[in-house]
Amino acid sequence: MKSIQNNCLHVAGIAGAILLLTTLNISAAGQDSTPATPSAQAWVGARIIDGTGKPAIENATLLIRNGRVEAVGRRVRIPAGAKRIDATGKTIMPGIINAHGHVSDPAQFGVYLRDGITTILSLGGAKEFDLREQCAKAPPGTAPHLYVAGLIQDSSAIPGAVAVKTPEEARKSVGELIRNKPDFVKVRVDDFLGARQKMSPEVYGAVIDEAHKNGFRTAAHIVLLEDARGVLRAGVNYIAHSVRDREVDEEFIRLMKKRHAFYSPTLTRELAVFTYSETPSFFTDPFFLKEADPAEMAKMEDPKRQDAMRNDPAALWYKEHMLIAMRNLKRLSDAGIVIAAGTDSGGGPGRFQGYFEHLELEYETKAGLTPMQAIVSATSGAAKALNISKQVGTLEKGKWADFLLLSANPLDDIRNTRSIESVWIGGVRVADKKQ
After folding, report:
1. Is 0.70 surpassed by the pTM of this model?
2. Cα separation of 270 and 285, whole Å?
3. E strands along 103-260, which residues?
4. Is residue 21 scored above 60 in pLDDT?
5. β-strands 96-101, 218-221: how paired?
């Protein structure tokens, strides 16, 4: 398989790389004799959750240099001249990865970043390749690492998608798409609860096969268990939504393992379909309010919209099946399937970018995952799904210094991922929102 294309990963490191090494210092006994650089920072005394799933390291040091992690642990030797930053009582964790979102405007880069989302897979849209280019050219600390799918291969040409009706059309469409080197080729297999025609196995099989023949990985939007089995039999790499109609079975788990496939629950996508039948409690959360669009909030609070949602058959179906999606997440996690946290944020009304990624982790714990498992799903698990774990997802030597400084411990309460004091990407601090 071709590796996922380079996007913004190199950006944040540029600023650090241009700083020259200082004059060699002869250190005293017991000190590290490594030449110090002005770009070296030592975060001292923190609780560090490294994203691997291992227990947190208490009273630890995170040493970064030139935008990358140089060392993590309790016995890190700090080079002379490094900037020491007291992080006593704080928690450091990797930047959050949203393994299923949608970006349609450069203004959304800052929203995601300020909420601690340092990497995004934007899984379908007409503007994604241009946005990836803009992201790559953005100044350090102003844009997340962005991966994209481009136009979704679908049975009808709804916004962000292209219609393919036959295997021949599917292969031609994929051929046109991959000229732009997408990071995934996405196929949608969904009849929207009977509202339209669903893509047939012959067509989605051609999409997946054509993508794989050319070295590109594939992701699938599904709702039903049988469709999820079908795309797995066709070789799909990534199940980008929960199975929601019924409980997953042993056959599905065997197919997931056979294909080494990844699973994104997107529980907050379901929440957004039915929760606005009334004003949700999170509309009073200060962390939500600091970035939320007041105009979008007003739409969700409109009495006519809320009344319509209370009686909408689709909303009622998704509300009824939310618990099935949550049980499926728990069963798949227990079976050893790699979970990649995703939200579908930006993909429809009321799917608030940035905040929904934190809310997703809360719902993963409501489904039975531990706080550590939820964090792993949004760090190393998501990085594995995107095939970028050599660069991001954990705080380990050589990886990009993408991390959050928190005032509270998310292992005590997953909602503490929202206690953000600062966000860093490639060793560069993300600026606070301008008032």
Report:
1. yes
2. 20
3. 117-122, 145-148, 152-154, 161-163, 185-188, 218-221, 238-239
4. no
5. unpaired
